[in-house]
Amino acid sequence: MIEIIKAIIFGIVEGITEWLPISSTGHMILLEEFLHMNVSEEFWNFFLVVIQLGAIIAVVVMHWNSIFPFNFNKKKGSFIKMDIMVLWFKIVVACVPAAVVGILFDDILEKYLYNPIVVATMLILFGIGFILIENRNQNSVARVSDIHKLSFKDAILIGMFQLIAAIFPGTSRSGATILGGLMIGVSRVVAAEFTFYLAIPVMFGASLLKVLKIGFAFTTMEFMILGVGMFTAFIVSILVIKFLMSYIKKHDFKVFGYYRIILGILVIGYFLLLA
């Protein structure tokens, strides 16, 4: 029962931090320092990745009409929504850099970079980045205010920022892609929407990679832990996505930048005390 409660807590943290630009992986690694699950290391690494599926399913459910490219009509027959299909081509293009690095170097990155100091450093650096970019854009008008007007060049550039997040935990995949979008003149709303959609193939792909490497050889309790964590992340993600989309229509991302910097400093201070 204790492990189920821990899974709920991890699900809540995942659901919040996956969509706010403050690093879900970073928070999960840090939370594990204080709330250790009594499971095998293999299952824990699997849990960290696959629990994100709950958050991704929330995006699919909430944005189904905006991302499903087919329309089935009994009278007219089925047809393709070309604007959505083109958007998916852009999403795939943006995902290629991170996908290649993830497939080739996943084990190496996990071994050498998934540690609290790297997480804290990237929290601080990208926190500073958000503040600087938002200050720069304060009186400017966004070049792209409609997600379907994103060019393939825009998608590739945003994908390169996602690559940074794939390499350095603590960067935040959503934080990196949103920051990249803001830097090239994309509006906050469009940057957030494109980030949500990018997460779908990235997280499904990462989960599939873990399944292929590890399989499903887990105990009944471990499957329960995984299911509870995913369901909790799903529910919390719906609430957080609604909050974020409402928030950024009237506010900028600087508050998240300040949060990242403060958290990063606290993490470094904590682990220095332990050293």
Protein architecture, described:
By secondary structure, the protein is an all-alpha fold. It has one domain (2-274). Helix content is 76%, strand content 1%. The chain is built from 12 helices and 2 strands, in the order αααααββααααααα. The chain is globular, with a radius of gyration of 19 Å. The model has no long low-confidence stretch (mean pLDDT 90).
Write a concise synopsis of the structure shown.
By secondary structure, the chain is mostly helical.
Q: What structural keywords apply?
A:
275 residues; mainly alpha; two-stranded antiparallel sheet; 2 strands; 1% strand; globular
Element string (H = helix, E = strand): HHHHHEEHHHHHHH
Strand order of the largest sheet: 1-2
Helix content: over 70%
Question: Structural class from helices and strands?
Answer: mainly alpha
Q: Which runs of at least 5 residues are low in confidence (pLDDT < 50)?
A: none
Mean pLDDT: 90
Our estimate of the beta-strand percent is: under 5%
* Rg estimate, integer Å: 19 Å
| Number of strand segments | 2
* Separation of the first and last Cα atoms: 33 Å
Shape: globular
